[in-house]
Specification:
This protein is mainly alpha-helical. Helices cover about 85% and strands about 0% of the residues. It is built from seven helices and no strands. α3 runs parallel beside α5 and α4 packs antiparallel against α5.
Length: about 190
């Protein structure tokens, strides 16, 4: 009878221990399930934010191209700069920044008649940097290769710098008449 009681007590202890373990496991499963549901919920929210962010960048690009079509280069430049915050590796955005900055250099007049052309040169430098960045992202981007050559030829009068960009553009588009004509002009001017 004593052994039977000891055996029952031992069995009860084992059952209690097993029951505690089962209850603990159930509690952990519930907590893990809650955690998994929370993670799933927040993952979905992060995806929604990412989609929204990418859409914002696209909208800035669309607005920028609309401004560009209307020849509102200053506003277009601002829109493309905002789009670059979302897409910093987009060669097209850099090309558009370069284009707008080149046009804005024409509007940078010395209204105070001080003889200072800093604003114009800042726009031209921005244009050059933007075109070079577009080319660094996509070395075969003919529009940017041609645009920087135009900038060097007509704005900066650095004919020698235009030549390699035009030669590269013509290895990609062998029958690009604009690039051929500009290259001939640069060769003539560089002598």
């Amino acid at each position: 009878s004593v052994k039977l009681r000891e055996l029952k007590n031992t069995e009860i202890k084992i059952i209690r221990h097993d029951l505690k373990h089962v209850l603990s496991s159930i509690s952990t499963m519930i907590n893990n399930q809650e955690y998994e549901e929370a993670i799933k919920k927040y993952d979905e929210r992060v995806r929604d934010i990412q989609i929204s962010q990418s859409q914002i960048g696209i909208w800035h690009k669309i607005v920028g191209t609309r401004y560009l079509d209307k020849k509102l280069y200053g506003e277009a430049l601002k829109s493309f700069q905002k789009a670059l915050e979302y897409y910093p590796d987009n060669q097209n955005l850099y090309y558009y920044v370069g284009l707008c900055a080149a046009y804005m250099s024409h509007a940078a007049l010395d209204f105070d008649a001080t003889g200072n052309a800093d604003k114009k040169m800042n726009y031209l430098k921005l244009s050059e940097d933007a075109y070079l960045r577009a080319i660094s992202i996509d070395p075969r981007y003919v529009r940017a290769l041609y645009a920087i050559a135009v900038l060097y030829e007509f704005e900066l009068k650095e004919y020698d710098k235009a030549i390699p960009h035009l030669e590269k553009a013509l290895t990609i588009e062998k029958k690009n008449l604009d690039a051929m004509t500009l290259l001939a002009r640069c060769y003539y001017r560089a002598e």
